[in-house]
Amino acid sequence: MKASQFFISTYKEAPADAEVVSHKLMMRAGLIRRVSAGIYTYMPMGLRVLHKVEAIIREEMNRAGAIELTMPMIQPAEFWQETGRFAGMGPELLRLQDRHGRDFVVQPTSEEVVTDIARSELRSYKQLPVNFYQIQTKFRDERRPRFGLMRGREFIMKDAYSFDKDVAGAQASYQTMRQAYRAIFDRFGLRYRAVAADSGAIGGDLSEEFQVIAATGEDAIIYCPDSDYAANIEKAEALAPRAPRPAPTQPLVKTPTPGKSTCEDVAQLLQVPLTSTVKSIVLATEELDAQGVVVATQLWLLLLRGDHAMNEVKVGKLPGMENGFRFASEGEIVAAFGSKPGYLGPIGVRADVKVVADREVAVMADFICGANAEDFHYTGVNWGRDLPEPALVADIRNVVAGDLSPDGKGVLAIERGIELGHVFYLGTKYSKAMNATFLDENGKPTWFEMGCYGIGVTRLPAAAIEQNHDERGIIWPDAIAPFTLVICPIGLDRSDAVRAKAMQLHDELAAKGVDVILDDRGERPGAMFADWELIGVPHRVVISERGLKEGQVEYQHRRQTEPTKVAVDQLVSYLAEQNVYGLVP
Amino acid sequence: MKASQFFISTYKEAPADAEVVSHKLMMRAGLIRRVSAGIYTYMPMGLRVLHKVEAIIREEMNRAGAIELTMPMIQPAEFWQETGRFAGMGPELLRLQDRHGRDFVVQPTSEEVVTDIARSELRSYKQLPVNFYQIQTKFRDERRPRFGLMRGREFIMKDAYSFDKDVAGAQASYQTMRQAYRAIFDRFGLRYRAVAADSGAIGGDLSEEFQVIAATGEDAIIYCPDSDYAANIEKAEALAPRAPRPAPTQPLVKTPTPGKSTCEDVAQLLQVPLTSTVKSIVLATEELDAQGVVVATQLWLLLLRGDHAMNEVKVGKLPGMENGFRFASEGEIVAAFGSKPGYLGPIGVRADVKVVADREVAVMADFICGANAEDFHYTGVNWGRDLPEPALVADIRNVVAGDLSPDGKGVLAIERGIELGHVFYLGTKYSKAMNATFLDENGKPTWFEMGCYGIGVTRLPAAAIEQNHDERGIIWPDAIAPFTLVICPIGLDRSDAVRAKAMQLHDELAAKGVDVILDDRGERPGAMFADWELIGVPHRVVISERGLKEGQVEYQHRRQTEPTKVAVDQLVSYLAEQNVYGLVP
């Protein structure tokens, strides 16, 4: 490719609405152009990246036996009504009507349409397993689209859906996809972790996220440096402490803590570590009658160590929480506890309030908690002595760095990640809702066991940039760079030797399989180098008249700060040593 | 590819709503699946065809210097309001609102967004010419979607947009695209014609349609078998007759024609050829004031030979018709002509009615027309003698087979076609509307000269099938077949020799570049052959135990009715002689 025949558009400044580095650099390097909030044109330079990402995904999905199809962008509401998602999904689902007033949605995913295909096309167990995938434009009407392609509204996703005859088959399909995802992410050339994720109401451990490591990532990734344990924050289990509960050493004292309603304030006032305090969180669950009217409300008191955070996913799995929970109102709290929030605690709690202690809290002694009286806390609180043992002890908190690893092989560390992929066992959720069955070995109609598997195609370049950039711009991994190597000739217009060598090297490297671009725009060296460093092409070869007189060109990797002189007739073998992507010497 | 690892779904019957053969065969062969009216899933077998079509288009567009990008499906109304198309485009434009109540459209094409890109990214004449293209999902909310992919609502289109600094540049860009389209359509392997089309108000001859020839096509293609003249029916010019007007031989007679209000009826009644009659069509144009209120109505009397049809595009170009016309109401006609329609004619017409005679009518003598009196026609009518020469003589009719070719090289013939591509010079229509300018050589802001170029990607397989099918199913051209060659083993499960040879040939042909599928499903020969004949794979190799004992396999092209025995060790060279696509022996 010659730069003069391509479209290159770089900017010194990023637009004001670009908050994160990937958004800024994608705009400055001309990879994308904003059309509306969260809606972008993929410009020629950016589309090359997407095409490479798509090609890798397609190859590995095909290799794993998945079969590509393309489902429509605009889907009729009927299917979405069958699963309840048309009404249930909220404003993220973009709804519209056609000229006849019929309801449609713009697909955010395609479970409904693919399940409809299965129920009419997959009639016998003999046709199973099948895994259909598509690489297709999706839309989610985010309330606050931001960060460029990181949280856009229109985006491209690879979504795959497996259909199996039984749970064992679905597990095998899941494992096949998991391996394919590892192959895909390995090929992208990004640092990533496959982390266990919550699998929702279905249970089991068949849910993993593929997180690209980046300091700016939205997600906390929990991992054990001494083993291969990795999970997201919702999923990572906080083990029960190994040490038993110490014996009480302090008396129970009702202590004035005027105006100190947080654990931090109380710990500071009393000059104790935050880990000596216990926080109280009051939740409510409701029983509804057939008309959806609340007929009973149950209050819950959750106890967490002062420095710990509640994990809503774990709480949502407690017995009695299956249908969801909410935070209790101040009125409900005052009525039940006789105190406003900030001074609550488990001593003297009304018998109809369910008390749940986090595992960590259950082994604390001499702790501090609210006294259910404004401006007072208890110190020296001890289970069994000052209050009954907790009715329920459970893991209801987020893990923190230093916690024991659930696999018993060390302690946990935390890093930040960007979710790029998700493999998920769906079970019969959609096949039941849409009554999608096949005939099993005995001729009996049986619901499909399903899995779904997504990769955020347009989000991937953003994550790659968050992970790989410096003050000069993007640093692409070879496999997904818009171009693998750029030839920068100095004085193209003045020197026939430079022009001839540049053209010859371009043609030679292209013939040898390198995705090469020759910058024949006639820019000055400074501007030319700055462009390609901003765009982030990983390999650069500079040709100058002076160099050629010495039989040399200069090579520099985007991560290097200085060029290396290379004999021009050794260049190809030198590039092969640098593992230039695609090069077949 | 092994059939057992792919998804094959064929049907004996087409659904009841499939009216045309391509729709029936695409459904029966499992290429597409209906999701809603005019909205389809491209099933794995169909998607392979689309991917091949897209690859050919992409290669040739890139070769022609066009640059690929991807514009969004969901586009903000603001751009469409700038060009007036948001309000003006009618219900085919699918409109929707996001969660904040902002207006959007689903793109039917992308002139607005690409022009917005140009006005901010293309700042100088030095950046021109540029041609941006995309291969992207589109939506047109057709009132009556039908014929499967032939007139769908959601479809894939390749749309390209060129930007030039002046008309000469735009003409050059147009010619480049025209050549690229010829290369693309040549590679598809379909019989097609590039036909001149009407270029609307812009004038000039820079509009051509690429029509795939098919007896079932919606469009009439006019061509000259003795030259390369080809045009669509709107465009094809009807030359003035060479022979001069004959001298009058009959007297003018007012003849009773009770109840005979059509030329056909009058000709039959009077026992004269239809070509002796003249039909009268009354049109109206309106003058509006600034508030859009009609302040004046002009009536027009158009005269056509009885066997000819009015061409609305040609009529719309008459001086005075620039702002559109409508058919006059019966009330207007009676008031102006003193007779109801069916008995109108040019004799004694009120002076304020503009009379336009078709070129053919202008040289008629002794003709028959209405007498402006119910149940009466004139016979023996002659220009100059019985009525004044027509105020305006123009080409206002559709050509018919046998008309003189406009290039003077023979007579015209007509065949049917399906429009698959269109190249079109846009001029400054969109750049003016959106004030999209660049700085010219003198630093002066100048509107871009634009062109647009479309190919209906998803419509193409339907057109290919309309052109290439028989009673057994589809017959794909090699380049866009879902698979190029199928290996059908007989008794795969019974014979190790058959299995081994089938596998070996599959691997060998795949390695030599053939897109081959091995049918290892274990179907009986009849069902297996019927499937592949329905699907339309062009080349078939049958391997049987008996054949192998004689060292032979059977080859049959989809168009052949009998197989040919080929020595198994000569197969590759034999296939090379059959020009099997992709084969590098």
UniProtKB/TrEMBL annotation, chains A, B:
GO terms for molecular function: aminoacyl-tRNA deacylase activity; ATP binding; proline-tRNA ligase activity. The keyword ATP-binding applies. Keywords: Aminoacyl-tRNA synthetase, ATP-binding, Cytoplasm, Ligase, Nucleotide-binding, Protein biosynthesis. Its EC number is 6.1.1.15. Residues 33-477 form the Aminoacyl-transfer RNA synthetases class-II family profile domain. Its main location: cytoplasm. PROSITE patterns: AA_TRNA_LIGASE_II. GO terms for cellular component: cytosol. It is found in: Cytoplasm. It comes from the Bacteria. It catalyses: tRNA(Pro) + L-proline + ATP = L-prolyl-tRNA(Pro) + AMP + diphosphate. InterPro entries: aa-tRNA-synt_IIb, aa-tRNA-synth_II, aa-tRNA-synth_II/BPL/LPL, Anticodon-bd, Anticodon-bd_dom_sf, Pro-tRNA-ligase_IIa, Pro-tRNA-synth_IIa_bac-type, Pro-tRNA-Synthase_IIa_type1. One of its GO terms (biological process) is prolyl-tRNA aminoacylation. Signal peptide: none annotated. Pfam families: HGTP_anticodon, tRNA-synt_2b, tRNA_edit. Consists of three domains: the N-terminal catalytic domain, the editing domain and the C-terminal anticodon-binding domain. Homodimer. PANTHER family: MITOCHONDRIAL RIBOSOME PROTEIN L39/PROLYL-TRNA LIGASE FAMILY MEMBER, PROLINE--TRNA LIGASE. Catalyzes the attachment of proline to tRNA(Pro) in a two-step reaction: proline is first activated by ATP to form Pro-AMP and then transferred to the acceptor end of tRNA(Pro). As ProRS can inadvertently accommodate and process non-cognate amino acids such as alanine and cysteine, to avoid such errors it has two additional distinct editing activities against alanine. One activity is designated as 'pretransfer' editing and involves the tRNA(Pro)-independent hydrolysis of activated Ala-AMP. Belongs to the class-II aminoacyl-tRNA synthetase family. ProS type 1 subfamily. HAMAP family: Pro_tRNA_synth_type1 (MF_01569). This is Proline--tRNA ligase.
